[in-house]
Amino acid sequence: MICKNLIVRYLNKNKDYKGGFFVKKVSLSVKIFIGLALGVLVGLMISLEIATTFIKPLGTLFLNLIKMIIVPLVLSSLVVGSASTGDVGKLGRIGIKTLAYYLVTTAFAVVLGLLLANILNPGFGLNIPLDATAEAKEIPSIADTLLNIIPTNPIQAMGNANMLQIIVFALFLGIAITLIGEKGKPFHAFFDSMAEVCYKIVAIIMEFAPIGVFGLITPVVAAHGVSALLPLLKVIIAVYIGCILHAVVVYSGTVYISARMSPATFFKGASPAMMLAFTTSSSSGTLPVTMKCAEDNLGVPKSIGSFVLPLGATINMDGTALYQGVCALFVAQVYGMDLTIAQQMTIVLTATLASIGTAGVPGSGLIMLTMVLQSVGLPLEGMALVGGIDRILDMARTCINITGDMACSILVASTEGELQEPAEKSISA
After folding, report:
1. Which of 56, 110, 185, 282 has a CA-to-CA distance to 46 between 20 and 30 Å?
2. In this predicted model, what pLDDT tens digit does every residue of 310-333 receive, in sequence order?
3. What is the tens place of the pLDDT at every residue in 170-187?
4. Among candidates 419, 429, 411, which has minimal Cα distance to 101?
């Protein structure tokens, strides 16, 4: 009888009891993976017209639901996060740690991308038309970038979903709440309640994530197929290998050294956000799920996650930086140009600084590539060479970007002595 009771208690802990049977729960990450796999399969079987007309709207609807909640979630959570520290000095300390980690890992990502491109030589022997042209977007100066992060109209910034301006405004609100003490508590309580409402809306939206992922990936596969990817397969392989290595070496090392968290625990907890980022190719769109994964699955307190993660979704671009290294050397090889070590180090510096300088700018990956190519005298027409597969590459680099955000949140929480045990009810449950 004792053994029977112990077995029943274990099963009740890990499974749902329904109709006299114990039914194993299917995690959100598994559901998303199923949606992804079905999307790939269906995309290979149907035409682009059918995929665009009948299936893509499902993905668009899901993305619109996510976008609907991003601005109020970022505003409320960041206000609560910055105010909950209770110490302006602590907030500054957390900010310095976060920025330092993002810059260092970005530089490492560029170096890794260059290293892989030198080993795999993706541009050698390719017969790709070189008469294609691509229009370079205007590159914002550092001065303009710094000036533009201060909103002249916070309401307009929220209406335009300008994330950097929203972050700055939210930080000012949080700091002011901390400084005025008792009188700021009602204001703090308002944003705290708003954040909880946003979290609940996110939980409701995520019930439809597998369908949304299916709707997003199917037209991509239908558009490109397999044959279209073969000429640029080496570029794709280099970027994907680089992203995997960066995640395994840098992020696993970060969470293990700083928090003694096993890589398996980290990637399992982060998997729902990683899957969604891979499919949507949007760090901002994935942000609500990233925050829930960090808090519920990885033990990052809300006070730290609500600061580190929105900032990371805006300026942390490890995957994009790695992509810059691979693509710059690819373009050079296609055009028969040899880059010296000094020129490759210039690429590292430019891509690292550009990751901050182009933060929050639409099409930032293309803008960064423009800056990188110009820095070493490569033709801008080279952007057109990877334009056809950019969506495929964007999925991997976005996934890495948000994974780095979560690794950083664990490091900061651990070094602040605030890393917690994951909540019993996980988002992946």
Report:
1. 282
2. 888 877 888 888 988 898 888 888
3. 889 988 988 888 888 899
4. 411
The 3-state secondary structure of 57-76 reads HHHHHHHHHHHHHHHHHHHH
Give the range of the structural domain holding residue 373, as residue numbers without chain letter.
25-415
Using CA atoms, how far apart are residues 302 and 299, in angstroms rounded to an integer? 9
Distance CA 43, CA 131 (A): 31
Residue 135: C-alpha distances to residues 123, 129, 130, 337, 383 (Å) = 22, 17, 14, 22, 9
Assess if residue 122 is contained within a domain: yes
Q: What is the pTM of this model?
A: 0.73
Q: What is the three-class DSSP state of 359? A: coil
Q: Flag whether 198 is in a domain.
A: yes
- Of 114, 116, 136, 131, whose CA–CA distance to 335 is shortest? 131
Cα dist from 211 to 215, 217, 376, whole Å: 6, 10, 44
* CATH label of the domain that carries residue 207: 1.10.3860.10
Which helix or strand (DSSP H or E) is residue 424 part of? Answer: none
